[in-house]
């Protein structure tokens, strides 16, 4: 679809665009990140069955843990052509030490949701996850669709110690805990050399690199990757000796969770 010209947009569309840009680029919870070594996180949005079957075992075989962002209202339903996990799978991965993070209950666009409805939705998701895994509510959150705005960011910024978006980059120096940067892990947009550049960058900066993807399966969607490519990335990180931990563990280590 062709992007409309500014003069073709309504006032509300212009304001929404400005709000998105401010939400993405203005730091609402600045934090000076100080790490003694670089760290990588592997995160998964929507939590399709394929990541339970393929990604989690690949991480575990390498002695690593991941963060799986669950929208509880999607469980056992199909999202973007992918079957989403059931409660037993969620509990199983939590029991193995993986983090289950928040992703709203209804997988909603937070930018378009009134604050009262947004907070009711995320609290419902928190309660569902806590019930399934038998622990406190989630510590980290990923914005569905990567969508963000000033009102939604203000509403959520103190509800979770760390919130991840899809703004590209490595977290280093002054970071925004309300909108952590991340790098997509998609077959259609990454290759071996691009991953090497990302790992070079996180080592040089002594920063925090958060990978995200959706499905991990043969013939992946355009927002997923194949098991072979995922395992290749895991092996690259392992061979470099870069620490891998869940988002919650890094948040705890830097003293914000």
User: Could you name the CATH topology?
Assistant: TIM Barrel
The parts where pLDDT drops under 50 for at least 5 residues are none
First CA to last CA: what distance? 41 Å
Helix/strand/pairing category: alpha/beta
What's the CATH architecture name? Alpha-Beta Barrel
Percentage of residues in DSSP E strands? 15-25%
The helix/strand order is HEEHEEEHEHEHEEEHEHEH
Number of helices: 8
The largest sheet, given as strand count, sense and whether it forms a barrel, is: 8 strands, parallel
What's the Cα radius of gyration? 18 Å
Q: Any idea what the shape is?
A: globular
Residues in helix, %: 25-40%
Can you identify the CATH class?
Answer: Alpha Beta
Structural overview:
The structure is a single chain. This protein has one domain: Glycoside hydrolase/deacetylase (TIM Barrel, Alpha-Beta Barrel), CATH 3.20.20.370. It has 257 residues and is an alpha/beta fold. Strands 2, 3, 6, 7, 8, 10, 11 and 12 form an 8-stranded parallel beta sheet that branches. The relative contact order is 0.20. The chain is globular, with a radius of gyration of 18 Å. It has helices at 11-25, 49-61, 87-95, 115-133, 150-156, 192-205, 227-240, 247-253; strands at residues 30-33, 39-45, 67-70, 78-79, 82-83, 99-102, 140-142, 162-168, 173-176, 180-184, 208-213, 243-244.
């Amino acid at each position: 679809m062709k992007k409309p010209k500014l003069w073709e947009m309504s006032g509300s569309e212009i304001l929404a665009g400005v709000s998105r840009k401010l939400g993405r680029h203005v730091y609402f919870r600045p934090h000076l990140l100080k790490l003694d070594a670089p760290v990588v996180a592997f995160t998964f949005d929507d939590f399709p069955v394929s990541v339970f079957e393929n990604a989690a075992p690949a991480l575990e075989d390498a002695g690593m843990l991941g963060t799986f962002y669950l929208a509880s209202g999607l469980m056992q339903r199909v999202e973007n052509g992918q079957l989403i996990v059931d409660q037993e799978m969620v509990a199983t991965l939590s029991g193995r030490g993986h983090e289950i993070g928040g992703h709203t209950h209804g997988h909603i666009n937070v930018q378009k949701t009134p604050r009262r409805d947004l907070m009711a939705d995320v609290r419902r998701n928190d309660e569902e996850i806590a019930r399934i895994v038998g622990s406190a509510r989630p510590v980290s959150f990923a914005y569905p669709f990567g969508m963000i705005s000033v009102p939604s960011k203000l509403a959520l910024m103190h509800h979770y110690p760390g919130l991840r978006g899809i703004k590209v980059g490595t977290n280093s120096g002054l970071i925004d805990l309300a909108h952590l940067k991340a790098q997509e892990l998609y077959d259609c947009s990454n290759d071996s050399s691009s991953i090497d550049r990302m790992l070079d960058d996180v080592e040089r900066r002594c920063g925090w690199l958060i990978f995200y993807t959706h499905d991990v399966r043969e013939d992946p969607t355009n927002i997923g990757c194949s098991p072979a490519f995922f395992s290749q990335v895991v092996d690259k990180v392992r061979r470099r000796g870069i620490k891998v931990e869940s988002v919650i563990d890094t948040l705890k280590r830097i003293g914000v969770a």
